[in-house]
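OP here, attaching both records as promised.
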Amino acid sequence: MSQFLMKPKIDFAFKEIMADEKARTGFLSAVLHLDPADIRETRILNSFLRKVHEDDKLGILDVRILMNDDMEIDTEIQLSKLNVWADRSLFYVAKMFTEQIEEGQKYDVLKKCVNISILDFVLFQGEPEFYSCFHLLEDTRHFLYTDKMEFHVIELPKLPAGPVEGCTELELWAKFINAERKEEFDMLAEKNPYIDSAYKQLQVISQDQRMRMEYEAREKAVRDYNQGMYEAEQRGREEGQRLSRESIAKNMLSLGLSAETIFQATGVHVDQIRN
């Protein structure tokens, strides 16, 4: 029990780590490239499971934070591949933006809305960097249209391996979120006081029996979901291969080749070919 440590990239654990104000400040300052001293206040607005549709068995747990009373930040962790992630994050940032204003209010009440996506899969193929930041810019002259929407994407599989010496604050945080062994946590905590606070919070929640049960239930749900998706892909691939073999067999049959020859070439059973 004393050696058990939750994995920060399991969203339940990340949510509980963000309950620590110092850890929250350090994480946001690293991602948003701010001096921690400029972050006067951070307040968690809510953290809940957001489901894409009613039958969604897993859902995505997000943590929404109000910073300095002028910026809303939504942080999400996604462990399984989701090709529509960009559209999805845009949808929820737009929703977060429009929910701020009520009928009769002026547009100056609108706060900046930021999405931070921590992904355990590669979203941008062919791009080597683990971190990307997006704004609304003019196409050719690249000046800002508005600063009210901002997207930060951290792709954990692209994290460079090797020692932590010379790593940026953001890279240290990404390595902490991706870490699984005590030795990794110890080393990263020594490099950054905010990560040290996050690590202490991780140790506390890892020893809480109730939280551990919730964490393990969430980890199992993520694992079962990923396994289900893998098996569905395998079935789809096998069905595609079967249909492809049958299609080739039909073409060979139309050319007048014998059932035995087609069987040897495609593996489709002779009786099936004759039928």
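Record two, same layout:
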Amino acid sequence: MQTRRIGDLDISAIGLGAMPMSIEGRPDEARSLATIHAALDAGVTLIDTADAYHLHADEVGHNETLIAKALAGHDRGRDVLVATKGGHLRPGDGSWTLDGSPAHLRAACAASLRRLGVDAIGLYQFHRPDPRIPYEESVGAVRELLDEGKIRAAGISNANPEQIRLANDILGGRLVAVQNQFSPAFRSSEPELRLCDELGIAFLPWSPLGGISRARELGSSYAPFAHVAEAHGVSPQRVCLAWMLALAPVVVPIPGASRPETILDSLAATDLVLTAAELAELDAAL
């Protein structure tokens, strides 16, 4: 498995996005555990989660608890950087709400620590800006958690360039990751990607294949991805992730998965070398 950097850590160049194992359409626990273990066996050392990845109001942190169980049952579990998030909520009616208040973020971090069973969270990310709370107050709470040693590294998610620069300033240059939506179908976060490359901050694209409902259609929606995939005898999804890795050395995709075969296909993208002509063909299609 090739590696990339998040802060001072070397992590797998592709991580596992665990959200599909806890939201609508989630599989049974046995298949989820098998998916996580397959990823670990293949060399994954980054798993992305959040306290809001759950279905019902009484199961906040379902995904974090699942990951903790999976890691405890694997001999490489201690080698994994778990990246979790706070500031987003699911009331249980299918909606998503926000709470970026410092009080909530401190409480959410404490709860995540308990569910993950760790003394300090490897990477804690402010999940999404809350328009009711000044951004500097939310990120300031994350800074305090970092200074207190409750988290080892700090990140933000769903941020624009101004917020990235502001967060990095508030954190004293210690912002190590930005997690934004980015895929062939959603390229509006390219300015954030380029800024992260300039600043040496890891950029973690979420839904890199277009999301749970659209990932299977990637090849039919973007013919060049299917064309390049056919030439290499691989899936269009694998080509997409290889293309993404080639965009910048700070890019660390976190494709979601709920089946072992799915994450294994995604991870194989680290070994797929695309030619300059193929990369140009893919870029021209977007």
